[in-house]
Amino acid sequence: MKPLQNLNTTTSDTIVHRRHKKSPRDVYQNDGFNAYVARSANYLLAKRSFDIFFSTLIILVVLSWLLPVLGSLIKLSSQGPVFFKQRRVGRNGKSFMCLKLRTMIINMEADETPAQDNDYRITKLGSFLRQAHLDELPQFFNVLTGHMSIVGPRPHMAADCIRFSFVIPSYEFRHSVKPGITGWAQVKGYHGPTSNYESIINRYYWDAQYVRKAGLWLDVKIVTITISRIVRQTFRLVFLLPVLKTKMQSSLSNDHRVLH
After folding, report:
1. pTM for the complete prediction?
2. What pLDDT, in 10s, does the model give residues 112-149?
3. Do residues 171 and 161 touch, judged by C-beta distance below 8 A?
4. Residues 6+ away with beta carbon under 8 Å from 45
5. 130 neighbors 122 (Cβ within 8 angstroms)
6. Which of 62, 79, 135, 252 is least surrounded by Cβ atoms within 10 Å, i.e. has the fewest?
7. pLDDT-derived band of residue 255, with 50, 70 and 90 as boundaries?
8. What domain count does the chain have?
């Protein structure tokens, strides 16, 4: 297990107060959640019903045709399986096999070292899948089987959970609920590599806030924002970037002819 990289000396308490105007006690306090769960049986039933309905809808309407297409592209672009399976930490610290579309070349560091910016292991197709968040699509099967929810803190590798718990002693509090495909931390902009104290603490803050304030309307809000962002990001990657690239190449070509 490799240590965290690029850690500065700013304390977690200082970051919490500066970023969220909260005392560390407000952020790390994890009292009372069991009592909340005991009083929220209707919410938990509604949440599970929504998970089953939404995941089934996505699997039948979208994944039934999109996964074969993406799977074929993955097989053509690099050697290896279509799906990447990895043990992740779920509710109450129990591990489960999390599914993703493979975005990397086969490597021995996959279970120890998370992806970083400009990671040599990520394929060209994998980079697109990650930017459009399409690599997470197989996790709807994890939702249908009950290991995950549509909304919740993102599931991490056991190695990451151990590392992060050195920064935040109460890190396991986020495991009080099922992990999700999307979460409050993600819609707040905290996703991708966690290479320093601040990225870990800010992500944990919003995960902990979700655990405390989870509700059906909050789930609907998070899902709506996530879908909107994925549509915009995919449109930008598929349509806008190629157009801009073509215009830039044309402009450079014209400038070259003028110089000559």
Report:
1. 0.79
2. 777 777 888 989 999 889 888 899 999 999 999 999 99
3. yes
4. none
5. yes
6. 79
7. very low
8. 1
